[in-house]
């Protein structure tokens, strides 16, 4: 993603409040592959493309495109420029043509005993706003004087018409960010974003009576553009392909004070303000895609004595790209994700141990096909962790997390305590109950200092 300066203003959010702009309203639009002037569009076909725009314009960058392979031939009425009007009842669809040529072509091409499909696009009273109607034709009555035909019909759904369904989500690239830490996107497409602050001077997690962690400051912001594709075979109820490209950026500013008054073994603590669900990208009866943004703040803490330690880290990922193949984890990959960070620590009381805060940021996508016939959930999780290990020269106890911790050395720091800090960053992809894979991991040394008693 290419980032440029974009001036915007967001007020400081209330404790654990979430701010976001993620409303998706799909509008049926004619796919650009159709030329409404061509009478050939009157001919029923077993291949049909249905586009839906995320805005009122038929911008291909913001479209969701559904390609259907159908059991029986289909006529897409919106693709016929000479259709003057369409009216529906519970059991009929009446079509008025504006030219005798179109009327005659329909007579010659449409089977008189029916057994094909009509798809309407909010014409007359045939379907709800923002939706299309699907009708099985079981008979036809022609009116030569009015150049109109009345089809005897049965209203059906996507699961009845399609032998296979393939959906492509918008092909959108680009984003905008400003230098205040707020991240937003200003491009058409499936964009999701949120900002929220942690409670100030509140205990975000604790282990009474010996341990508390207080958030002195905490602000988190994230944004993503989502593109993707899936194909599904209806008779076998088998997914043929499913992948998503996720372009993302996030910003975190976290300051935590750890106050430990007695020894205790390593524990992993987590505070979560909840999950933000953007509005669903939904074509009723065909599919729904539910994006979710999840944040959590936590720490790995363990010590053989009292610790009073403060950590502050400001971190941004301005340019992260992920390709997540739900069907094959080996095809999943990422590029970018270079972290930018500043950090500071202060230790007023030390014992051998560690106090290592982390942030988990996840983009999760839940897909439902044909009203629950098939569903799956997956996504990516990015975890930056500020690793802080304290080692007192006189102590022989080593209390550490099983992984991502630094071994105490105490080689040159013989009259004080050693503070070793590093930044660990990992990106994991997953499909719930299927697989999980680490796509990226890096550890950046920050400090190795000796502080005299």
TrEMBL record:
The species this protein was found in? Hypoxylon rubiginosum
Protein name in the entry: Uncharacterized protein
